[in-house]
């Protein structure tokens, strides 16, 4: 997979050179002006979702707010797709191409934070937008509506679609939506993610399967008759042991990690229930399938040796992202046309104060938010349910600097910045890049074809096949305490 | 330890034969009449505590109610002993002998139950009196006050004392009270426990040490940099494994059981905290000390192998009960003088309905509540903080049939019966037996001497030594969720 | 099972008292005189077997020597029974009753020892008779031949039979012979065992199942491609772990112990073969069956979790001994008629020198060899393939003091003494007791009936069922290095 | 470390192009002619060592043969260096530069093989030259002697030295020789290794630390008193478990593998001795040091948790090879000057027959032995005690095609071919390349300086520090059975 990337790498600088000198065409300049006028409105939308801070599959008010904007703009809305109350998509226009934009909006447990450069929870222990999904959904909403207005005004054919995708953080919303087929008629999917830099991506990440393994034993008084009991915790321990012994015998890029979510109720009783929550990851889904099958054997072995019963509930199953070189180049082009994020003196003061709380390291420095980074080819060790979409439709993701350079995802710092003007500026930039790139695709069918060709080549005949069992329902309560 | 029991066994039937023909002396008959008059009042007290249903160390209202009765009767109350808000003792009288009566009053989590013969929680998930400690504390209170009135009226010298001992269920209230020395000046301790039969005991149980082992590691992203993390869960797993390997190499009567109370927070992060809660038991405390030292080594090994840090918090440490043959014989004598529990037709109906919900087995049958069982010599696999008291002062425990025959402790059935007239009848019987036996001791110093001689012989020079570290505070929040 | 023993215990002393005054009848005195005349010859036989020191299933010369004596005495010999080259039985006479006497003759690896009271191997690392089976087989041979001559002379009907049973030490020779049915037509089986005391036994021991679990994986270079390998050692480790977790959940009298007989060939290669050798024991075979089934599940789980293949070879499977009160009483009677073992001054010096090498303890003291101990009711933690015989035929075992009091089996001390006159004196006493008891049975059919009645009562309907799979061959090479 | 390699990669093809057209200078042509004349003699030497097939530290006859050739050629021999009977070095000449050539000669257990293209042991179970060290030592001997004659004839100053280095296969001969300082005055070390291709190397391999961990417990009868025993096998199991849990938390390129070399003597006895043999590898020694320290902690934890005692014996400790770009380029030059290996019809038939027994794969095909491969930059997952030498002196290794293309090391195929003319042809080529390259260095001091500069740059200040404890003796008996 590296070779194509390297070829792209060589080709792109030439484009950059050209891009650097490029000007925004006049009609697009008008679009951007309109978007600037509407920026504060969508900043407010993002701030409301930031305040809602609803966790996966519970994003009722957040998704409603995004839908109301789309509805007002004339989009037709398909609600509760894939049996998920907060999953939806909104379409406008007719015929081909169908260009989709993804929007996420779920918050993270325990990351409640004020919009200030010191760690302070708004509500102690409550969820917060530590991954900036309030910005993510709002920018995509903003972009879809802006594209619609441009298409309408210019009478350009095709369909613009917004996908409201819940529970990215471990709940796998897109995976259930993908299984329901809602991406099948789409030609291109564009997406983005909040970050500490402006950058197009042609890298990948890790495929990921996660499940809860539940063991059911037989209770007994642990002192009076331990021989009468069959311990579900023993099964969990033995499964864990077996997985540890397996580590030597999987490819070294594999990642397997677990926690014990229920380790027995009382020391005085042989535990008749115990639960282990296990993730496995690998850069390729077919290889991961084989590794996962062996983890299931470890769980079965735990049950067999302890005379307990095992049940597995698949929680998540995300493909590694299949990148798209054509779309990444288009993103990069538009990022360079528009340039980075510039702070006001107040924002600069905020950023400097926040920077002092970050771990010093090799990361990006303050000021880099004004620049556009080179296209990234990194294979990230994270996973995302965007992966599944990317094996169905040519898909690309880019980042904008919504966070102070050096900020990590899932931190109080990202939660803080996602709730104030720095995050909102990055969000507006993202909306513009998404809109510009979508319009490039609407107006240049050859780009759509090229993206599809790149998709076919990279996919190399490996059709998407959902790893979620046919009878499995979305884990709508996966964030509830057991 | 068995031989003295067998000798006692042979001696006792002769006493029984005599007892069976004995009559309650006239002055005691008067006492019993007064107690009958006051029985409903203490039934109400027990019912209020049943409704409070407060768990260990949180028994604020329950202990206050018992104290208010004692205060009204003229007892002097020492509050908050051993730094425990709900521990107290109440004394009346002067000089020797000092006869103590123990009272417990803590409820059990999750055993909320209506006073009906079908399983139905009063408040779903709430605590309930599944071990009848509402009756326990109330009967002992009742007995102490009755003894005081008798002593006062007859001007008999000596001190009657009530010990309000919280958190028996795993919290070890008496262990901290014992460490504080509150039993040291006591000559005899009498106690009882709700049960499904009337019986004096000269058996024992298991010494018990319990602790939470907490491991502190180093968090890291489980996919991106697992090599940077040090897993506290790994330490828990290895400690567990080590304990399992130890099982072969301890005396077979040993019991070791544990649960994992914290097995990591998120599969995606190398757990930097994990906790295991471990019990060990054995019929002798010195042997258990040696076993426990090896369990601590297993925990240290878990930390050593994983480069994590271990902290142990001792939760409980109960001696095995040292029985007393003299006191047991006295209890047995008074039980036989007073006879068992007789049901009204309504109580009989309740008992029959409840019996249908019990596992059929070899246990006692309906009707046996009317009888007095033979003195028990069983070594029970349970543990109790009465054990520590029994190695400081000659101590004896008896049971009355507060529960329908066949009922187990810690069941909804025992919770139900502890909240209605059957339980209250058994409780009144217990109060009478305690009072009668205390008065026997106050009026016959030779019995006190004999009980002490038996104590010295059984203890065989093994002085009590609290296993709780000097700097450890009572685990006042041991019932809180981690 | 304890109650009948206690009853017996009370009854027996009365018999002893009578026995102590008893005299050997005249015709038996003649028998004993003849046996004294032949004692040195069988001492020589035993010494030759002591020098052969052949391990289990390899006792070619030892069994041949015993057979040659029997053949010379007119016995008919059935060789190679149960497909075992060194297993045989020898019969003389006709019709009922058929009285069998067992003889063992296998040595123990690594116990080569000179017949001196200091530890010194005859051949370093070679086998030796550390369990005195050289005496065992010789005394039984001696007894059978003496019985035959008596029966022939007196024309007493019935059949005397000697069973040459190889590989008692872990190889289970009698188990395979039992499966072949060679004990089925026997009425009574008498046996003995060398010991440090003279004693009849009515106790039992532990049923025992043993097997080698072999795991087959897939080799791979452990550094270059560990992911391609499937480790048989991992399977062994996981099976071991699973067994350890099981320990808490079996009755406390269970014993499970294992070694790893093959833990991989080279660290640099993922082991494609590994082997674990596991024993399980319990006082009852049906309970042990259930425990064993769970051990097999642990082995299966080890294979399942590691994608290896498991094969189990049952090595041994011995019932707990079913004692016989009638036969034990007869043994005891004859032991007391004959009295213990008396040392010459040289033997006394040997015994004193050897005593100094023994661990001081609570065991029997020098001089006790002259006495007859009370009948033993102990449940020993050892196991023996005599167990299987005892569930088919009424069987009893007694001991004579072939070893210096305080000597343990399987020690160099027992090997030394088994090779000199002290051992040989004990052996002659054993031969006499066996012969006398056999003749008691031949001449008093009521005793045979009583022994059978006791057998039926103790067996309580549990028919013998060999635990060895029908297609399993005797492990003739179980003493070979893997 | 990759960047310099890539630069070299670009530079080298230009040299190749030049080399391809180069001619052997006249005086060297004379040398080569002399070597051809002597080739059969050294083929015979190699065949004798092949027949000796002596394992590590037992190579008495093999080393003596090599020494006798050197002695005859006028070399001064230093015997028994580093307290190793079979380690030596032989020097000729005076002053600088000192150019060393390494020679190995130890065989591998179990690889005895006839010199035929079918698997057939010469002596079943005996050692064999499956890694071709018979050729290795002989070619290096041959080269050193040839260089000496050239230097003597041409009166070129400097010292040629042959290092006879035993026990490369796991015994670490060079590591002990390095600790003894015998490489310290050397300027350059040249070496080679039998292979299935002709190739210079600028790659590396893995640093490796290996040790036996021995645990000492307390024996006890496993059925009668397992609580009295402390199991050394339990300690081994727990150490193994701990190492498995560690795998997640080391860098993914780490390799840890172990076998259990002693898992207890008898199932019936709590094992008082057990042993585990563990390897750890990583591409960098300082990182491996940290990993190894954690493995030692796992071993300590195993002992701590089981109350056993642990002793570690370091067996081997090899640095990763520090390659040298200058020397590799010189080797490549001379390989190309001399060309590959050409088979006779008989050899071709042998090679074809043998090829059929090889796993078909992506490896080199028959015929490739005639070619010179490109310089290899691979990081091999093997380890070698050449690593230590390479951090003391600029060192380079090359390969010649002594084995049929596709043959793996440590196979019967390599053992077979190492004993016949194909192996001997490759060996002569190796001797010529070594001699030519040594002479290049003797005659061009700038090359020595350039090699030293490359060495200093790659070593980057990391001085060699032997990992073998000061008081540790060479494990002269590491090949003996425990």
Q: How would you sum up this structure in a few lines?
A:
Chain A has helices at 2-21, 26-52, 60-72, 133-154, 173-179, 232-246, 285-306, 325-338, 345-355, 386-390, 412-417, 421-443, 445-459, and strands at 76-78, 88-94, 98-103, 158-164, 188-195, 199-200, 207-216, 255-262, 273-282, 309-318, 395-401.
Describe this structure in words.
The structure is a homotetramer of 482-residue chains. Chain A has 482 residues and is α/β, with parallel strands linked by helices. Chain A is 41% helix and 16% strand. The first copy, chain A, is built from 13 helices and eleven strands. Chain A has helices spanning 2-21, 26-52, 60-72, 133-154, 173-179, 232-246, 285-306, 325-338, 345-355, 386-390, 412-417, 421-443, 445-459, and strands spanning 76-78, 88-94, 98-103, 158-164, 188-195, 199-200, 207-216, 255-262, 273-282, 309-318, 395-401. In chain A, 59% of the residues are buried. Residues 1-21 of chain A have low confidence and may be disordered. The A-B interface holds A 170, 206, 210, 221-226, 233, 236-237, 240-241, 244, 255, 257-268, 270-271, 276-279, 281, 380-383 and B 170, 206, 210, 221-226, 233, 237, 240-241, 244, 255, 257-268, 270-271, 276-279, 281, 380-383.
């Amino acid at each position: 997979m590296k070779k194509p990337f390297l070829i792209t790498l060589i080709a792109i600088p030439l484009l950059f050179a050209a891009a650097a000198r490029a000007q925004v065409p006049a009609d697009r300049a008008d679009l951007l002006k309109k978007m600037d006028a509407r920026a504060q409105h969508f900043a407010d939308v993002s701030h409301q979702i930031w305040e809602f801070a609803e966790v996966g599959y519970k994003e009722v008010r957040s998704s409603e707010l995004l839908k109301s904007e789309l509805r007002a703009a004339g989009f037709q809305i398909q609600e509760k797709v894939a049996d998920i109350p907060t999953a939806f998509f909104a379409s406008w226009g007719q015929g081909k191409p169908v260009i989709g934009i993804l929007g996420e909006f779920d918050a993270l447990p325990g990351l409640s934070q004020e919009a200030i450069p010191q760690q302070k929870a708004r509500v102690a222990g409550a969820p917060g937008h530590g991954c900036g999904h309030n910005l993510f959904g709002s920018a995509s909403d903003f972009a879809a509506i802006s594209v619609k207005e441009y298409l309408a005004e210019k009478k350009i054919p095709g369909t613009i679609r917004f996908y409201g995708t819940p529970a990215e953080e471990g709940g796998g919303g897109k995976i259930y939506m993908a299984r329901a087929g809602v991406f099948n008629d789409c030609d291109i999917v564009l997406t983005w993610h909040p970050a500490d830099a402006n950058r197009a991506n042609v890298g990948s990440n890790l495929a990921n399967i996660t499940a809860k393994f539940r063991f059911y034993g037989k209770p007994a008084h642990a002192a009076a008759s331990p021989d009468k009991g069959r311990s579900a915790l023993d099964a969990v321990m033995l499964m864990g042991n077996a997985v540890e012994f397996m580590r030597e015998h999987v490819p070294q890029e594999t990642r397997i990690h677990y926690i014990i979510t229920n380790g027995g109720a009382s020391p005085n009783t042989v535990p008749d229930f115990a639960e282990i929550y296990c993730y496995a990851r690998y850069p390729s889904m077919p290889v991961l399938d084989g590794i996962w099958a062996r983890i299931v054997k470890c769980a079965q072995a735990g049950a067999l040796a302890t005379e307990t019963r095992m049940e597995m509930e698949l929680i998540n199953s995300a493909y590694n992202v299949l990148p798209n070189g054509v779309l990444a180049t288009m993103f990069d082009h538009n990022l360079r046309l528009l340039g980075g994020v510039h702070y006001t003196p107040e924002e600069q003061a905020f950023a400097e104060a926040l920077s002092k709380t970050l771990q010093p390291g090799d990361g990006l420095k303050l000021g880099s938010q004004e620049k556009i980074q080179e296209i990234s080819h990194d294979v990230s060790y994270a996973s995302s349910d965007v992966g599944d979409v990317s094996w169905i439709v040519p898909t690309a993701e880019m980042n904008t600097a919504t966070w102070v350079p050096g900020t990590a995802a899932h931190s109080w710092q990202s939660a803080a910045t996602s709730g104030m003007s720095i995050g909102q500026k990055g969000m507006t930039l993202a909306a513009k890049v998404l809109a510009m790139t979508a319009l490039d695709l609407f107006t240049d069918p050859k780009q759509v074809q090229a993206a599809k060709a790149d998709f076919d080549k990279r996919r190399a005949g490996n059709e998407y096949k959902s790893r979620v069992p046919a009878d499995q329902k979305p884990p709508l309560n996966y964030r509830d305490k057991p």
